[in-house]
Structures are given as structure tokens and as C-alpha cells.
């Protein structure tokens, strides 16, 4: 499931289902992975806030919105 979330070439619905599956597991490892996944893509470490939405890649946007 972890790899599926990170596979940019995978169909976006598969990535969303992988994120849902990780959330349903509700283990500490799964939740940590989802938080790290979100931070790696949407968090600006310099200002310690989320980056503005980027609509150039709607598939990535939808996957990240599901994680939130």
C-alpha cells in the first residue's frame, strides 16, 4: 500500500484506494506513512506551513486531498 501511494505513474484512483486502505488499517506505522507522504508533497519546511494548491496535476491534487 505504501508503494502504491508513491507511484506517480499509477492511475490516481488506485493511489486513492491505497491511501484509504492505509487509513483503515489505523496502525501507527500506516498513519505515520500517510502524514509523511502528505508532508513530502505539500509541506514547505522553510515556513512550516502547507504549500499553496497546485492544480497543474489534478491527479496528484486528488490523491493529496484524500490523504488530508
Low-confidence stretches: none
**What's the number of helices?**
4
| Series of H and E elements | HHHEEH
Termini gap: 17 Å
Helix/strand-derived category reads: mainly alpha
| Alpha-carbon Rg, integer | 12 Å
- Portion of residues in beta strands equals 5-15%
Strand order, biggest sheet? 1-2
Number of domains: 1
Arithmetic mean pLDDT: 77
Overall shape: flat
Helix proportion range: 55-70%
Main sheet properties: 2 strands, antiparallel
Q: How many E-type strands?
A: 2
Question: How would you summarize the topology of this molecule?
Answer:
Blueprint: H1 2-6, H2 12-25, H3 28-42, E1 43-44, E2 49-50, H4 58-67
Antiparallel strand pairs: 1-2
Helix pairs in contact: 2-3, 2-4
Would you give an account of this structure?
With 68 residues, the chain is mainly alpha-helical. It has one domain (2-67). It is built from 4 helices and 2 strands; from the N terminus they run H-H-H-E-E-H. It has a two-stranded antiparallel ribbon. Strand 1 and strand 2 form a beta hairpin. The model has no long low-confidence stretch (mean pLDDT 77).
Summarize the structure.
This protein has helices spanning 2-6, 12-25, 28-42, 58-67; strands at residues 43-44, 49-50. It is mainly α and 68 residues long. The protein has a two-stranded antiparallel ribbon with strand order 1-2.
Please tag this protein with its features:
68 residues; mainly alpha; two-stranded antiparallel ribbon; 4 helices; 2 strands; 6% strand; PBS_lyase_HEAT
